[in-house]
Design goal:
The chain has an eight-stranded mixed sheet, sandwiched between helices. The chain has a domain at 7-213 and 231-361: Alkaline Phosphatase, subunit A, CATH 3.40.720. It has twelve helices and twelve strands. The chain is α/β, with parallel strands linked by helices and 486 residues long.
Length: 486
């Protein structure tokens, strides 16, 4: 008898950093369902994304390509029909690929070959009696902080809840074919707001200290963002409230995950379905006196994400402390599904770790971001694009204008991180080097410190070697070199 294929659920919150979850050590986070998933599966403690902006990160984890490999370093260049991706492989292998949520991944013409069913469930079901809104006037320094009032109404009115409900409804149909459910939800992406009771579920006074704002030898964009968003005029109590609401948003994600896990049990598919819980990048959420993220920002609170995988008959409660990359997701799912990749990639299968093995302690992981000044089609600022952000009342106005007026503040950057050290190289701006054992929060930049010169040189050499290995990929198929007969 042929072995029954596994099903897959890819639960993909947007902008969720690892350190803000209970199972990753946060002392007051309210994430019982995520914590339960970690206890029933494998938690990767040091999973890092390959880019800290939505689209490049998603293109990476769906292809196993670093963002520079094929031009996916921007918000505006998604996966096109000629390019490989995990969803396309799975659909071709006979899987029903169902998608509920946002799209920062596929070009419009790529959906037909990659997805069986696409649902953006924003307009159906109950509505909020009052939607979340910015409570501050434009002349208030809090205006650009992303902190909003909560919406008024039931959790079921939220578009993320509707997306999760769509997946629950699908499970209730007793699907006959093997399936992959992709749930790229929008929370906890800012603005910072959540339905009650989650919005006010965390007391800011109970939070651990935030990373301080006034640190020496940090990249120039730290202070530019703080100035342009007027964050430098806000006190610690306000930043702590932002962080608390961000945790509340994560609590709402946890609630929705709990609903999905319950439905999976009721469907009878819990024993043949792999659940992968992961994000595309993190958020400063008040740390360093900052909010949101930045295209060339490579701090751990932006690159380090949760990666939790529950495999039927796999290891339970296992923690992998060695570093991995988010793009390892692609090779892992393909191996579990028995599907062979037909393109050159850099994703590594995590299947051994899902059965209890440790990781590679010598592995270095990489991330990158930013744009060159000769790339006007890459930056988020390009002829005033997006138009909605080109006016001062737009919440993204400070970001778009900074990239236009100070393009050097978003210059290209690259990161190499091992278990002990982290190096960020920039061509002209401030480079960074951290000794993670003594400085896990990256407060003391030691780039150029003679005491770490040997380590700095070693990491820079590994960066060069990495670029040589990953600068491009050669197609698996070839073209005839002769001339066609006339």
């Amino acid at each position: 008898m042929a072995k029954k294929p596994l099903n897959f659920i890819l639960f993909n919150p947007d902008e969720m950093r690892a350190e803000s979850l209970g199972c990753y050590g946060h002392p007051v986070a309210q994430t019982p369902h995520i914590d339960r998933l970690a206890a029933e599966g494998v938690r990767f403690d040091q999973c890092h994304v390959q880019h800290t902006v939505c689209s490049p990160s998603r293109c990476s984890f769906m292809t196993g390509w670093y963002p520079h490999v094929s031009g996916h370093r921007t918000l505006w260049h998604l996966l096109r029909p000629h390019e490989p991706n995990l969803l396309k492989y799975m659909k071709r292998a006979g899987y029903d690929v169902a998608w509920w949520g946002k799209n920062d991944l596929l070009a419009t013409e790529s959906f037909a070959d990659s997805v069986s069913e696409v649902n953006v469930r924003r307009s159906e079901g109950p509505t909020f009696t009052k939607r979340a809104c910015n409570p501050y006037s434009l002349d208030d320094p809090r205006y650009y902080s992303f902190l909003n009032d909560p919406p008024e109404g039931p959790a079921e009115a939220h578009h993320d809840y509707r997306s999760v409900q769509g997946a629950i409804d699908f499970l209730g149909t007793n699907p006959e074919n093997p399936f992959l459910l992709y749930l790229p939800i929008s929370f906890p992406h800012c603005p910072f707001r959540a339905p009650q009771p989650w919005h006010d579920s965390i007391d800011p006074d109970t939070l651990p200290p935030l990373r301080p704002a006034e640190l020496a030898n940090k990249p120039d964009y730290f202070q530019l963002i703080r100035k342009n968003r007027r964050l430098d005029e806000l006190d610690q109590s306000f930043l702590r409230k932002i962080n608390a609401v961000y945790l509340g948003m994560i609590g709402f994600v946890d609630y929705m995950l709990g609903k999905l896990l319950e439905a999976l049990e009721e469907s009878g598919h819990a024993d043949d379905t792999v659940i992968l819980f992961f994000s595309d990048h993190g958020d400063w959420a008040g740390d360093f006196g900052l909010v949101e993220k930045w295209p060339s920002g490579l701090d751990d609170c932006l690159t380090r994400i949760p990666m939790i995988v529950r495999l039927p008959k796999g290891a339970k409660g296992h923690v992998v402390n060695e570093p991995i990359e988010c793009q390892d997701l692609m090779a892992t799912v393909l191996e579990l599904a028995g599907v062979e990749a037909e393109h050159t990639h850099f994703s590594r299968s995590l299947v051994p770790q899902l059965h209890g093995a440790s990781g590679d302690p010598d592995r270095a992981i990489f991330a990158e971001g930013g744009y060159d000044t000769h790339e006007p089609n890459a930056s988020e600022y390009w002829d005033g694009r997006p138009a909605f952000a080109s006016k001062p009342e737009a919440i993204y106005y400070p970001k778009i204008m900074q990239q236009g007026e100070n393009p050097e503040s978003v210059e290209r950057a690259v990161m190499i991180r091992t278990m002990t050290h982290k190096l960020v190289r920039r061509r002209q701006g401030v480079c960074e080097l951290y000794e993670l054992g003594t400085d896990p929060q990256e407060l003391n930049n030691r780039y150029g410190d003679p005491a770490l010169s040997a380590m700095q040189s070693k990491l820079e050499q590994r960066l060069l070697d990495w670029y040589l290995q990953t600068s491009d990929v050669v197609p698996h198929n070839d073209d005839p070199r002769g001339y066609a007969k006339r």
